[in-house]
């Protein structure tokens, strides 16, 4: 960490509250739906590393101010920075963000993330890797990157690929939204707590002894409920999802979905098809391969691979869909991106393969992680 | 920790070992009791960053269809059919050793159906392009990976290529040609049949509409296919063939898939037309209806429990006057007309038999490349374990030493690791000549696949045994996989041709080339024997480290060894013949040299293909990575920092390794032991 005295903006953007053994960190950019700025990522990483060494800290609670937990990385800012041609500035941002994801995934102390409201992209990366993920009746989760010309990053190729069957491919490729009950059912969340009880939960955590990590579990369990997954949820059609999203290629996934759509009129299938057809073809292909590789790798390897991929995305040598996606969705907001290549058959295996290679540029380096020590077995298992 | 404390600690541990019942009488010093336990430190965090890109190295090793392979891993990991087990917070695709033979067979069939349903076998039989063949090989290698007792890989073979369990050998006593072959049932139709069979059977086999098996081996005849005793005659009145098992030794044996599932079989049988024996031919015979009822005049029995591969339902078959249509003769080299005339373009029965069996080298190719893949699993497990397990301190104040930091442990595992790398490239070479095969390359494929099949499967057993021992007591646990793999793959040295017999095949081919070259006063050609045209290489009396490491020197000594053995073998055979013995007899007597010569040939082939693979690796990181070859020949201590990266490059997902490759302390903790067994 370069700076011991973070700028005011960083301090404001992440509020810190000390209560006995608990540190509560609140993402505080409500107008931007707590999108993670460079400063916030920097600050969170610094705090997490410091708390890990601090025997006075036994639990970290991470939450968001306002109606979102966190809507993602501050992609708009990244695009602004690199549109001047400086892709490395963007790469630096992701280096830090992925380092934070890695630290959270291998953290020695429990992290409770309160996912009240929107959790997307970078927001998922800042929470799903942690031990406990508490969702509510207001949670909306998505990994919407393929619609943005990006791919599910922040270690999503690790956690999506660990969902049951091929649900991860479905969530990652379509960018579909999940509610709290679905997140709990598929394992993205560990607990469902009604939002009315959140304050009580936090208070009890503040007061607890926390000598044993089971204490935390027992407290959260006390406030948890087991909501029913709604009838029309795609999660109830896991066998169809497995059948379609286990296909070898994106093209085969699409055609098997179309087969299913012809057989039964199910809203989720047509919605999924629509989302896939709207997404960047390049994004879909690199995302599928990333998830498939991710399933066979540890979290560190996943993040390192994603870092390679993101650098290629930022350099825009194979496709500039990320810039086009940001233009259409975030800047001009015409919601009508013109992808290039424009269709799946134009995205060759070679083009996809290039995203997974080292970046051939001067002193570019593969992602290296902060040193870790004394990892608990559960974190070790993720490596 | 003060040194005295450390000494006390060690003493205490030693005492516990020696007198476990008295351990409670020692009260540990405070500094020790605060942290008396070992903790698992993942080598992935502590080992030096790899000096090459493991991904690129994997691409070199796997060579083709990498995403397809990963896809297959994905399909297996995400399905409950493959026996996922949670150990130490990680999921392993575990051998199902607690299942009975019946259960293993049943689950195996369901696995195949699942993979079929996912499209894994699309095009396996109907698409014979090079690309499709490579994909098939890739899936076979991978499928085999975790194939437990219920060995899916073998079932893949079964299905796509049901071969009879202890596959097929044919011998050619008169012409000194001997073929060892296998094949798959669908493959058999492809190879032995003609268009009428392809149209009728291939697609439906690929879709599992019919389940086939391959009936070649008999109780009395394995390697010697020409000696089989099953007899088929033709009845011109009904236009049917009639198949019979004339005696107990003619019962079909080890027929994979026959005991339970197969609906059809390819029967290899002597064909007698008007009392004249026309030699071995192959016929398609239905043996069960789709509900699994065995047809009349066919008797089937189980081969019973085996030391491995119990997921494969090997069976025995007897035929009692079984009638089949004339069209069911697989007529690639010979046919019988409706009125009972025997027709073949190849008049000489020896040549006919050779032509008939020539294409069936695919089994040996599959076995060779599978064997080397299994070695990788064993090594990845043993080396990862040795990077986290410690034993004994060198000095009282020091932590205990990692197993892999002991030169002795390095010496045990690294040469095997190096050979596994080299043999991987040899296997890749074999695959590439196989998929590009032409009638002209049949001979080299026969020789090369024989030599490599024997060498790679022997190497695999040797490697697994060393890995088992290197894992100590943990190696004994079936869930740690190494021992299980030993049992599952032991038979590889037998099927597809006994390894020793195969090595004699190689020597015979070398002898043949030697005699032909001498007789025609021409230069040696093919089988990498061109070095015989050069003067014998001279090995300097004083070997230096750098000359030892030069590929020139290495090639020279391998050439020299082969030249020496070949010359001696030729001389020995000639000497026996001079004493009035037949060539065949002379050959049998020369077996010692023959087998050594076979090994020398295979080792040379491995070295040369490896050197070639290295030469083809051109740029950048692979200069590092070609590393591999350099490392291979270097001293073990130089290899040590790369050990983790080298086994990571195998690209075997953690789920297909075993608990001792990861956090074995957590996997053996009390809470873990309370989970499902």
Automatic annotation (TrEMBL), chain A:
InterPro entries: ClpP/crotonase-like_dom_sf, ECH_dom, HIBYL-CoA-H. It comes from the Eukaryota. Residues 22-356 form the Enoyl-CoA hydratase/isomerase domain. It catalyses: 3-hydroxy-2-methylpropanoyl-CoA + H2O = 3-hydroxy-2-methylpropanoate + CoA + H(+). Keywords: Hydrolase. Hydrolyzes 3-hydroxyisobutyryl-CoA (HIBYL-CoA), a saline catabolite. Has high activity toward isobutyryl-CoA. Could be an isobutyryl-CoA dehydrogenase that functions in valine catabolism. This is 3-hydroxyisobutyryl-CoA hydrolase. The lineage of its organism: Eukaryota, Viridiplantae, Streptophyta, Embryophyta, Tracheophyta.
UniProtKB/TrEMBL annotation, chain B:
It is found in: Peroxisome. FAD binds at residues 217, 256. The active site is at 496 (proton acceptor). InterPro entries: ACOX_C_alpha1, Acyl-CoA_Oxase/DH_mid-dom, Acyl-CoA_Oxase/DH_mid-dom_sf, Acyl-CoA_oxidase, AcylCo_DH-like_C, AcylCoA_DH/oxidase_NM_dom_sf. It holds the Pfam family Acyl-CoA_dh_M. Gene3D superfamilies: Butyryl-CoA Dehydrogenase, subunit A, domain 2 (2.40.110.10), Butyryl-CoA Dehydrogenase, subunit A, domain 3 (1.20.140.10). Coiled coil: none annotated. GO terms for molecular function: acyl-CoA oxidase activity; FAD binding; fatty acid binding. Residues 213-322 form the Acyl-CoA oxidase/dehydrogenase middle domain. Its cofactor is FAD. Keywords: FAD, Fatty acid metabolism, Flavoprotein, Lipid metabolism, Membrane, Oxidoreductase, Peroxisome, Transmembrane, Transmembrane helix. Belongs to the acyl-CoA oxidase family. This is Acyl-coenzyme A oxidase.
């Amino acid at each position: 960490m370069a700076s011991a005295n973070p700028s005011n903006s960083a301090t404001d953007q992440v509020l810190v509250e000390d209560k006995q053994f608990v540190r509560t960190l609140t993402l505080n950019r409500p107008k931007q739906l707590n999108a993670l700025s460079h400063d916030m990522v920097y600050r969170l990483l610094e705090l997490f590393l410091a708390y890990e060494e601090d025997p006075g800290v036994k639990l970290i609670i991470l939450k968001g101010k306002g109606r979102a937990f966190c809507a993602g990385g501050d992609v708009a800012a990244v695009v602004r920075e690199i549109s001047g041609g400086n892709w490395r500035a963007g790469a630096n941002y992701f280096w830090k963000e992925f380092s934070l994801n890695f630290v959270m995934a291998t953290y020695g102390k429990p992290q409770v993330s309160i996912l009240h409201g929107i959790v997307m992209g970078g927001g998922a990366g800042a929470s799903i890797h942690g031990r406990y993920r508490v969702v509510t009746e207001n949670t909306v989760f998505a990994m919407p990157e393929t619609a943005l010309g990006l791919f599910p990053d922040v270690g999503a190729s690790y956690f999506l690929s660990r969902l049951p069957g091929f649900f991860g491919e479905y969530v990652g490729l379509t960018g579909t939204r999940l509610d709290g009950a679905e997140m709990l059912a598929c394992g993205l969340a560990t607990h469902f707590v009604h939002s009315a009880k959140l304050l009580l939960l936090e208070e009890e955590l503040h007061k607890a002894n926390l000598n044993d990590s089971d204490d935390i579990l027992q407290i959260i369990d006390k406030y948890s409920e087991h909501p029913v997954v709604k009838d029309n949820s795609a999660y109830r059609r896991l066998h169809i999802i497995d059948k379609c999203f286990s296909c070898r290629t994106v093209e085969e996934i699409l055609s098997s979905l179309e087969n299913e759509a012809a057989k039964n009129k199910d809203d989720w299938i047509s919605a999924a098809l629509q989302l896939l057809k709207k997404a960047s073809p390049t994004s879909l292909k690199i995302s599928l391969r990333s998830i498939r590789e991710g399933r066979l790798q540890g979290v560190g390897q996943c993040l390192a691979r994603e870092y390679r991929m993101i650098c290629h995305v930022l350099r825009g040598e194979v496709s500039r869909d990320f810039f086009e996606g940001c233009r259409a969705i975030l800047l001009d907001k015409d919601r009508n991106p013109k992808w290039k290549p424009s269709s799946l058959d134009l995205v060759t295996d070679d083009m996809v393969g290039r995203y997974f290679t080292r970046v051939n540029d001067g002193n570019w380096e593969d992602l290296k992680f902060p040193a870790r020590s004394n990892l608990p077995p559960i974190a070790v298992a993720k490596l | 920790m003060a040194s005295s404390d450390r000494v006390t600690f060690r003493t205490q541990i030693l005492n516990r070992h020696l007198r476990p019942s008295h351990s409670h009488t020692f009260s540990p010093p405070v500094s020790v009791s605060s942290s008396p336990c070992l903790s698992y430190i993942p080598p992935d965090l502590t080992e030096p960053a790899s000096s090459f890109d493991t991904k690129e190295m994997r691409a070199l090793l796997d060579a083709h269809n990498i995403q397809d392979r990963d896809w297959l891993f994905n399909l297996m990991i995400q399905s409950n059919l493959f026996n996922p087990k949670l150990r130490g917070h990680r999921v392993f695709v575990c051998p199902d050793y607690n299942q009975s033979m019946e259960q293993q067979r049943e689950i195996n069939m369901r696995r195949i159906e699942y993979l079929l349903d996912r499209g894994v076998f699309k095009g396996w039989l109907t698409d014979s392009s090079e690309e499709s063949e490579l994909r098939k090989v890739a899936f076979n290698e991978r499928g085999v990976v975790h194939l437990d007792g219920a060995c899916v890989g073998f079932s893949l073979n079964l299905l796509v290529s049901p071969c009879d369990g202890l596959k097929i050998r044919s011998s050619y006593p008169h012409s000194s040609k001997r073929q060892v072959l296998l094949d798959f049932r669908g493959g058999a139709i492809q190879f032995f049949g003609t268009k009428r069979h392809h149209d009728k059977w291939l697609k439906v086999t690929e879709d599992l509409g019919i389940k086939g098996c391959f009936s070649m081996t008999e109780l009395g005849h394995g390697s010697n296919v020409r000696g089989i005793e099953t007899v088929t005659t033709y009845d011109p009145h009904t236009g049917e063939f009639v198949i019979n098992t004339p005696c107990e030794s003619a019962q079909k044996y080890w027929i994979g898939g026959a005991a339970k599932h197969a609906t059809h079989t390819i029967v290899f049988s002597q064909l007698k037309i008007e009392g004249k024996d026309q030699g071995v031919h192959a016929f398609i015979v239905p043996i069960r209806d789709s509900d699994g009822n065995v047809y009349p005049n066919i008797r089937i029995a189980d081969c019973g429990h085996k030391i491995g591969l119990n997921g494969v339902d090997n069976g025995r078959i007897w035929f009692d006057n079984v009638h089949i249509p004339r069209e069911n003769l697989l007529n690639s080299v010979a046919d019988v007309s409706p009125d009972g005339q025997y027709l073949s373009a190849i008049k000489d029965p020896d040549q006919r038999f050779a032509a008939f069996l020539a294409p069936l080298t695919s089994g040996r190719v599959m076995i060779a490349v599978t064997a080397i893949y299994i070695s990788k699993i064993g090594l990845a497990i043993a080396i990862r374990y040795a990077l986290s397990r410690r034993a004994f301190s060198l000095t009282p104040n020091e932590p205990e030493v990692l197993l892999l930091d002991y030169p002795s442990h390095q010496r045990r595992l690294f040469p095997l690791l190096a050979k596994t790398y080299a043999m991987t490239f040899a296997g890749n070479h074999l695959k590439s000549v196989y998929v590009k095969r032409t009638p002209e390359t049949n001979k080299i494929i026969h020789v090369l696949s024989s030599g490599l099949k024997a060498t790679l499967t022997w190497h695999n057993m040797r490697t697994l045994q060393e890995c088992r021992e290197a894992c100590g007591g943990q190696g004994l646990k079936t869930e740690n996989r190494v021992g299980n793999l030993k049992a599952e793959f032991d038979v590889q040295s037998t099927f597809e041709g006994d390894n020793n017999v195969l090595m004699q095949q190689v020597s015979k081919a070398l002898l043949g080339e030697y005699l032909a070259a001498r007789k025609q006063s021409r230069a040696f050609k093919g089988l990498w024997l061109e070095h015989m045209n050069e003067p014998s290489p001279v090995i300097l009396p004083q070997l230096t480290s750098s000359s030892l490491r030069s590929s020139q020197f290495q090639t020279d000594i391998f050439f020299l060894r082969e030249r020496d053995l070949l010359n001696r073998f030729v001389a020995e055979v000639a000497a026996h013949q001079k004493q009035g013995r037949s060539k065949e007899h002379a050959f049998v007597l020369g077996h010692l040299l023959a087998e050594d010569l076979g090994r020398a040939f295979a080792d040379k082939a491995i070295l040369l293909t490896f050197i070639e693979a290295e030469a083809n690796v051109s740029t950048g990181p692979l200069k590092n990575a070609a590393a591999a070859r350099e490392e291979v020949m270097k001293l073990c201590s130089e290899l040590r920092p790369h050990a983790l990266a080298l086994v990571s490059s195998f690209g075997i997902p953690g789920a297909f390794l075993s608990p001792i490759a990861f956090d074995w302390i957590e996997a053996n903790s009390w809470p873990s032991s309370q989970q499902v067994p």
